[in-house]
């Protein structure tokens, strides 16, 4: 018999501990203390109450919880004294069938880890999908985490314990995050498409209008059709656009003329060697919502338009937000003559893809026909992960500006050019990097990054005569962003003058800060609260397609927790099926609540 919330809510604290026995390894006190948070409104509420009980525990109790867990493939496994839950989990990950070499490797890692941290290595070996991690992934994670600082790793151990408990609770309640599994699987399947040079390394890179990019568009479009969208197209910039029409729609007759549209979506391009969830999560959460509406034969009193934006990252060309920008009429025809690293112009890439330049202006939407724009996105940061919260309400998106530049000096012999005679381009950029770091830190909440740095045709024994670089600067509001940029650019000029070099600098992107529309932020809050998840409001330091749509219509975003310290723009970027399930459910509630508003 599956456990129920009704049983837990009616039980004594001791009975609660008995019903939840095995959720946390040999630690009944957690369930007893969590019982004070009753009545549990949902399974998500119960999970959070358990997390809070651990969070409020003493250091000794937390360490005791960590030490109550067995080593991976350790003595308890060999002696068959693991709990039933641990036996199942380690077996599912293949740890009960290690080769002698794998077993020896894990034993050495266990010894090294215990020597450094004083507690066993804890990993939710059933993984973010619940189906089990491979032994290679487990060993790689073990080796990576061995290098963490002690305090950070203790937190990571607790976070993995909570994930283990979450999966065990799902089992106890007979709950399968079916929608979250589907969203997770779509992202995994889409990640097989990657640009040349990266596929061979097992890395994900999908840049604008490459063969892999076009394959992604076709696959997303196919899934949209299968889900039941009324129309699906790949538009003139490569956006994948699916529409689910409003109540009263009759197939073959066109859209219902009087109904407005709710717009959502995110991007499907990636950074180089990036993650599988940045952008794409927002497409597939919405796709799952439409599929469920279609299965229920339900329509809403408004149309629902889901867009997989073709480009947001600015990786192949200097322009960025090409997909969402085109929808608000912001596409600069001069971008068409930009060249990628191989000398291919955007115009040529578009011709290969069969896209017509003259059709781009037709993509501009009439904001009066739209209710607003909402976007679901993986957080891309550590905040939700460290707070053990699955969802976050975005209050605003930071404004940002990007530049690409060159410092031009004089290449000369590294052995014969005295230090006071050098015109070293790379040294000038190095000085700029340090200044940008220090200047941004003065604001407290500004950031500045030089993410690209290149000495073309550099040689070990040549003073660099040319150094190419990028600059990315962001701040919570436009005046703060502009002051930061002005100071950094002024310092670049001063550095170059002092060093006898010159520079070029080209602005490649500028985006205004985008505060969430209060009424739309409140709609996300109402949906998240109904799930029994605590509300946490937070700004977004990353740029998103929502900040472009913000220029013409109200917008608001929902963040989803990332695991692995919330890292993003990295192959370790990930989220769990349970968190994705909650994101879909929150979006469904937003759609339903909005439908009720329109009905009244």
UniProtKB/TrEMBL annotation:
Q: What is its EC number?
A: 3.5.1.87
Say if the entry is tagged with keyword Hydrolase. Answer: yes
Record keywords, A-Z: Hydrolase, Manganese, Metal-binding, Purine metabolism
- What are its cofactors? Mn(2+)
User: What top-tier enzyme class does this entry carry?
Assistant: hydrolase
Where do the Oxo-4-hydroxy-4-carboxy-5-ureidoimidazoline decarboxylase domain residues begin and end?
9-170
Which SUPFAM superfamilies does this one have?
Bacterial exopeptidase dimerisation domain (SSF55031), UraD-Like (SSF158694), Zn-dependent exopeptidases (SSF53187)
GO MF annotations in UniProt: N-carbamoyl-L-amino-acid hydrolase activity
Q: Belongs to which family? A: Belongs to the peptidase M20 family.
Subunit note: Homodimer.
The record's listing under PANTHER family reads: ALLANTOATE DEIMINASE-RELATED
Task: Kindly provide the name given to this protein in its UniProt entry.
Answer: N-carbamoyl-L-amino-acid hydrolase
Q: Which organism is it from?
A: Variovorax soli
């Amino acid at each position: 018999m599956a456990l129920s919330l009704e049983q837990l809510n009616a039980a004594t604290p001791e009975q609660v501990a008995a019903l939840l026995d095995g959720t946390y390894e040999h630690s009944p006190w957690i369930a007893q203390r969590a019982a004070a948070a009753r009545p549990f409104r949902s399974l998500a509420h119960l999970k959070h109450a358990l997390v809070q009980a651990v969070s409020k525990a003493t250091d000794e109790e937390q360490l005791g919880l960590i030490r109550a867990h067995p080593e991976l493939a350790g003595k308890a496994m060999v002696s068959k004294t693991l709990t039933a839950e641990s036996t199942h989990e380690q077996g599912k990950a293949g740890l009960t069938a290690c080769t002698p070499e794998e077993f020896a490797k894990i034993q050495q890692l266990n010894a090294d880890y215990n020597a450094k941290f004083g507690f066993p290595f804890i990993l939710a070996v059933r993984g973010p999908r619940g189906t089990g991690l491979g032994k290679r992934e487990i060993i790689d994670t073990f080796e990576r985490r061995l290098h963490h600082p002690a305090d950070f790793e203790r937190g990571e151990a607790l976070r993995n314990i909570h994930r283990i408990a979450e999966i065990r609770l799902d089992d106890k309640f007979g709950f399968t995050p079916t929608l979250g599994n589907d969203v997770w699987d779509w992202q995994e399947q889409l990640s097989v498409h990657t640009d040349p040079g990266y596929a061979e390394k097992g890395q994900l890179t999908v840049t604008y209008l490459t063969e892999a990019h076009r394959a992604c568009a076709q696959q997303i479009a196919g899934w949209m059709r299968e889900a039941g969208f009324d129309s699906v197209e790949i538009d003139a910039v490569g956006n994948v656009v699916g529409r689910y029409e409003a109540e009263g729609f009759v197939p073959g007759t066109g859209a219902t003329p009087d109904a407005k549209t709710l717009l959502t979506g995110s991007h499907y391009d990636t950074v180089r060697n990036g993650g599988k969830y940045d952008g794409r999560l927002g497409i597939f959460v919405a796709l799952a919502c439409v599929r469920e509406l279609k299965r229920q034969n339900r329509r809403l009193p408004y149309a629902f338009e889901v867009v997989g934006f073709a480009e947001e990252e600015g990786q192949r060309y200097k322009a960025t937000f090409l997909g969402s920008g085109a929808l608000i009429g912001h596409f600069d025809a001069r971008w068409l003559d930009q060249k990628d690293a191989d000398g291919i112009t955007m115009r040529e890439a578009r011709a290969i893809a069969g896209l017509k330049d003259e059709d781009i202006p037709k993509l501009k939407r009439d904001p009066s026909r739209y209710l607003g724009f909402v976007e679901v996105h993986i957080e891309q940061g550590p905040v939700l992960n460290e707070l053990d919260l699955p969802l976050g309400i975005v209050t605003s998106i930071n404004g940002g500006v990007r530049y690409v530049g060159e410092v031009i000096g004089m290449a000369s012999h590294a052995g014969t050019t005295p230090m006071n005679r050098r015109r070293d381009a790379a040294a000038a950029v190095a000085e700029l990097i340090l200044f940008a770091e220090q200047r941004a830190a003065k604001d407290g909440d500004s950031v500045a990054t030089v993410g690209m740095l290149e000495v073309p045709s550099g040689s070990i024994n040549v003073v660099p005569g040319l150094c190419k670089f990028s600059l990315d600067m962001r701040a919570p509001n436009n005046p703060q962003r502009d002051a930061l940029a002005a100071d950094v650019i002024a310092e670049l000029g001063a550095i170059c003058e002092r060093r006898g070099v010159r520079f070029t600098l080209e602005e490649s992107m500028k985006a205004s800060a985008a505060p969430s529309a209060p009424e739309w932020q409140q709609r996300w809050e109402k949906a998240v609260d109904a799930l029994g998840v605590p509300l946490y409001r937070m700004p977004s330091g990353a740029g998103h397609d929502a900040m472009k749509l913000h220029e013409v219509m109200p917008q608001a975003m929902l963040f989803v927790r990332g695991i692995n310290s919330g890292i993003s723009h990295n192959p370790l970027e990930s989220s769990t099926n349970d968190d994705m399930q909650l994101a879909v459910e929150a979006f469904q509630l937003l759609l339903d609540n909005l439908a009720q508003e329109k009905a009244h």
